[in-house]
Amino acid sequence: MSHFVDRLTFFRAKREKYSEGHGITTNESRAWEDAYRKRWAADKIVRSTHGVNCTGSCSWKIYVKGGIVTWETQQTDYPRTRPDLPNHEPRGCPRGASYSWYLYSGTRVKYPLVRARMIRHWREARASMSPVAAWRAIAEDPQKRHDWVSRRGRGGFVRVSWDEINELIAAANAYTIREYGPDRVVGFSPIPAMSMISYAAGSRYLSLLGSVCLSFYDWYCDLPPASPQTWGEQTDVPESADWYNAGFLLVWGSNVPMTRAPDAHFYAEVRYRGAKSAVIAPDYNEAAKFSDIWLHPKQGTDAALALAFGHVALREFYLDRQSEYFTDYARKYSDFPLLVTLTDREGQLVPDRMLRAADLPGNLGEENNPDWKAIGFDETTGDLVAPLGSSGHRWGDAGKWNLEQKDGKGRDIRLRMTLADHHDAIAPVAFPYFGGSAAHDWTATDHERILMRNIPVREIATADGGTIKVATVFDLYCANYGLDRGFGGANVATDYDDDVPFTPAWAEKVTGVKREAIIQIAREFAQNAETTKGRSMVILGAGLNHWYHMDMSYRGIIQLLVMCGCIGKSGGGWAHYVGQEKLRPQTGWLPLAFALDWTRPPRQMNGTSFFYAHTDQWRYESMQVSELLSPTAPEGDWSGAMIDYNVRAERMGWLPSAPQLLQNPLDVGAALAESGGNPGEAVASKLKSGELTFANADPDDPRNWPRNMFFWRSNVLGASGKGHEYFLKHFVGSLHGVIGTDDAEGLVRPQEVAWHDEAPVGKLDLMVNIDFRMSTTSLYSDIVLPTATWYEKHDLNTTDMHPFIHPLTAAVDPSWEARSDWNIFRGIAKAFSEVAPEVLGIEQDVVLTPIQHDSPGEIAQPYAPQDWGRGECDPIPGKTMPSVALVERNYPEVFARFTSLGPALEKLGNGSKGLNWDTAHEVELLGKLNGTVLDGTTKGRPKIDADIDACETILMLAPETNGEVAVKAWQALSKSTGREHAHLAEGKEEEKIRFRDVVSQPRKIISSPTWSGIESESVCYNAGWTNVHELIPWRTLTGRQQLYQDHHWMRAFGEAFVTWKPPIDTRSIAAALGKLPNGNKEIQLNFLTPHQKWGIHSTYTENLIMLSLNRGGPAVWISEDDAREAGIVDNDWIEAFNVNGALTARAIVSQRIMPGSCIMYHAQEKLVNTVGSEMTGQRGGIHNSVTRINMKPTHMIGGYVQLAYGFNYYGTVGANRDEIVILRKMSKVNWFDKAADETGTSDASIGTTRREAAE
Length: 1255
Prior knowledge:
By secondary structure, the protein is α/β, with parallel strands linked by helices. The protein contains 40 helices and 36 strands. Helix 5 crosses helix 6 (about 130-140) and helix 18 (about 505-510) crosses helix 19. The chain is globular. The termini are far apart. It is a peripheral membrane protein. It holds the Pfam family Molybdopterin. Keywords: 4Fe-4S, Cell membrane, Electron transport, Iron, Iron-sulfur, Membrane, Metal-binding, Molybdenum, Nitrate assimilation, Oxidoreductase, Transport.
């Protein structure tokens, strides 16, 4: 019967009761239930994931009905693990489960948007001019340029067509390249592993232009410099499944249940298996709830705690008794037995550099690279020997770069770890101590700045006919930890209660952790490692790595792991998880991403140094380099401001620079091509004469400004932009909240950088953001392009946390006028090729490249560096200055090259990390798979027209996804090591993972020599496994785990050995205290920004589903004690500020926060529920409004094996945890809901509104 008739007869339907009237049956319609049934019905279910840099890399089912994504649930079909290991699923979190909200939300960018004032000027000019001429007319008109620059961040967007906006962008790029140079066009996008093709789209376009790609891993401060320093590896860590193999888990500064939710089940499961868990965190966090013991040191004192742990382990397992496992491991795999020279400085012996074969008569028989071969004593013969594995063996001694216990002549050796029983003398040696003073409320101790400690030394003959004193790293190491070994002298501890630096008693004063707990954890951790042969693991993350002296904390922990034999052992080691940095098919991705198939080298720049210079934060530098210097520093001129050190590093070829030269590199290239000769020699000569100058010497000269900026897959202004307000003022040119001035007392004027009394405001001509949502960066951009969401495009995704590669897939077509990143940059490239011939043709481009890690150039500077800019040597490309290349750019062919695979792979091969292999066969297969170009200048080349073509290119070229390539890669490594490694890819030769394979199911990658672990049924991925089990050296000076850092600058700043350095004094408070009182008490707190529960960086923070689960806007956590002192109760509006800027938020008062600190979880944007600041008279800022970039000189080192530069490998990092804020309760809450005045502020009487960018 019809539904209509059913409704008419409803009241006449017979009803029957049962169960004594407690139940009733009726004949009424139940059609209403269909709504619920259909809610869970779907037309199709598609696999995808979230490219959000959360490290989860979780595969999801995307449900589509009627062409609309309705919801998502977790996939559960990951390849199974072995029987004794839990499977990887379930993987996911509430944030990922809410992502489909974004597709149809009000925050979605639906159409290309442009600032109205810009497009008005463009259209007027374009009506009568060609594209490049039109852009020139408006960009060179100061009034017109100011008209749109000054309106950034203040609304005024209008919708435009793709064709029009692509032409505008292309014209701006072409003009900038012709007028200033391709290195004035810059792009920033982070973490390619989360969506490899989307990253590669922009970087390929920029690289074909010769433009600059900025690094991100260092800028995000996710890069732990201690990893390159120790292992010569950016970051390589165990997969989360290997946690299950651990016997002791030390979770340090990582909130696993909250920020590693998809992997946390392994943490729970191994505890059921009997593993012990200790959590170290200053706040009582979610991980602490699940631990066996919780240690809560004073925030920022982790290095002190790690040193005390090491003190206990050394005392009990190396000195009181010798653990056979530990000493054998350290002898084979660390630099403990190698020799360090001792030099006299003002009457005191000081550890100098490692002893080299070149120091000894006849180079000890080593003919190849004797400057780079470390030396030790053979325990059997007592002779000095050069063990295999040093960097000197890697470059030139084919077949000798391995960790076999032999010397260069093939003789078996056993290295002596200590000279305790074989010394010529016991001598006092000087060690620096930095803990005698401390900022804020950190604890200083009463110890001398130089600690003299006795060690056994030998005196040996040198090549110059003299003698030199030497000691083993181990003997110096024990002295550094303050251990009494019976050699007499002061500043050593006989027991744990002695008040000597690095004992548990000393650490108790500094950290607040009871010495008994320190001794217990250190002893149990080491005892477990000894019993299980290395199955003690430390999980660590941003809680440690975001401090200025993060490498001291990390090196302290790493050295504990090395002395306990945990690195390279399943269930043990160093598990650093911050960003989704592991791009597993890296070698296949690199040629696509940086257009290496067409031109080499690409222009790459470390992000931190770039933003420090071009947001003018160097002008506000308050830290004196002399504060960081060691009292035992080598003699020399150590003067200068922080930016001076960066300039010297760039000049000496240590760091990259962007822009590179004051002059347009195309003009320089044209002149060099016309004159002929060697480009490197010509550039070096012109630099020396002053005819050419580095742009870094005057970053505020308009000729040296970055002019065009692309942001995609990121939110710099809403998440990672340390010094947010300086970005707004100097880089963007908008209203800002900078409270301090660049002429304040105590600021350091540079020696080598030009000073302009009036700093620039608004350096960028054009700022383009590509996003699916209206983020903070979008609000300040000139152009916002709508990109596809993660459910609307094809891409690839990998992570550190599991061994699988899987896809992003287009479950639906991009909504409205959105396009995938690949198609966006494809469209811009097409427009550029049409526009460029107006001013650009085939051009010669001079490219300067820093001395690269994993290349023969890394052994360029073996001893104390020489600066040609100071007249200490001549500029020699690739030796004492950057390398120089003359690169041909074919600008009219950018689109043709963007969409096809170039010939360089057949000619030059492919590879990474110092390896290279022939790849012609893979290029041929790609031509058959993707098809070839049918006409034009790229006729016959394999096509990369669509995003799936790009995916197939990566999968075909990478050893991790092509077994045939994996075998070739292992064979390439065997040529260096002299050992057979191809067995690690046995059985995989015929395996080729295709894109549609990973769409069907995630695929486990293939073992590759570009990583230090293996993929195996019997072994979980664990970093360092191949070094220990295959005897492949670490990529360091010694080839071993490098605990002693002997570079000249490392010794100068007191970091040759790990030591304790308190958090720095950022001097951000004094000038802001009492500046604009509001009647409420002001307190000073250390400002911490850990990752949050309700968002992944800034994504999800305005997602309505997530907002409904938390307070729904910015919040700062403070302790009950601090709240009581400031008169604050829970949910009060508070303001936090310093000279850098101000933010507003709700207060969350909690006893889980340590007094003296406050927590504002990372990347809460100012888009939702943010009130006005009483200090600035503008809407409150974000977490980075109160921060400023603080760079560290030791991160600028280059040209020195493991310390040589690599993109995202080593360089200055963006630390921010040392910052102090003034926090107070707000007296007046202003929502700025009135009409704005001409400054963009709703009430100009409030605060100290900044007016530089106002009209």
